[in-house]
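Deliverable D5.2: sample structural annotation.
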Amino acid sequence: MKDIMTAPFMVEMIRTVTEMYRHGWDERNGGNVSLMLEEADVQEYLDVKNVIRTIPTGFKAQELSGKYFLVTGTGKYFKNVQYDAAKNLGIVRITEDGENADIMWGYSDGGQFTSEFPAHMMSHVARLKVDPENRVVMHCHPANLLAMTYVHDLDEKAFTRTLWQMCTECIVVFPDGVNVLPWMLCGTNEIGIATAEKMETARLVVWAQHGIYGAGKDLDETFGLIETAEKGAEIYMKIAHLPLVNTITDEQMHLLEGRFSVKAREGYLE
C-alpha cells in the first residue's frame, strides 16, 4: 500500500483546510469539509476490507451507499490538521443501508465525523442530481458574508444581485446565484434538509447569522466560490453606509454573460 499522506486527495484536503483557517473562515472548531473519493483511489492507500468501526449517521441516504468520503472531524480545529491529519480527518464509507458509516481511516483518538455530517450528505445527494461530478461540500464562517446577513435583506434575488454588483467576477463565478436560509438550529437534520433543498438551485447557500455552505467539483472550485462571494460581501460591508455613485449595471452583466459563456439565474437580471 502507498502512504496515504502522499495521496493527492489528502495533500489537497490538508492544504485547503489550512488555507480556510488562515483566511479566518474557521475559528476554533468551526466549519467542516467533505470530499467524495473514488474507491479505486482509496484502494491504492487502504485495505477497503478493513473496517475500523461503524457509526450511525443519524439519517438515511441509500443514494450514497458504498461511497467514500474524506471528512473533517467533530470538535477538531482546522489549524491542527496539517500537524496530525489522522486525528483530525477520517475516511468513511456509507453502508449498504445508508444509515451508518464505516470508519476506514482516521479519527485516531476515537473521534468521529463532523456533527454537520447529515447536512453534508444530504447536500451531496442533492448536488449529484444536478451535477454528477459534484464531489465537495464545504461549510465555513466568512466574516463579511455573516455580517451582511445582519444588515441586508435576506431575499435571495436581492442578496445575489448585491453580490454580483460588488465585483465583476461574481456573476462569472457563481451565475446560479446565492440561496439564503434564515437562522436555524445547526447540527440538526432539519437544517440539513433545508440546505439540500437550496442546493438544488445554487452551489452557495448562506446560513443567516452563521456562515455559508458551498458545493463544487473539487476543493479548489468550492473554495473559490466561497472566496469570491466573501470578497463581494467585504466590498458591500465597506460601502453599504455610503451613497452609491456607480455600480455594475444589468446591461454590463449581460455583456459578462456573453464574454465568459455563463448564464445568470433566470429572472435575476433585467
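Annotation notes: Residues 144 and 238 are 10 Å apart (CA to CA). The longest helix spans residues 219-239.
The annotation will be released with the project's public dataset once the embargo ends.
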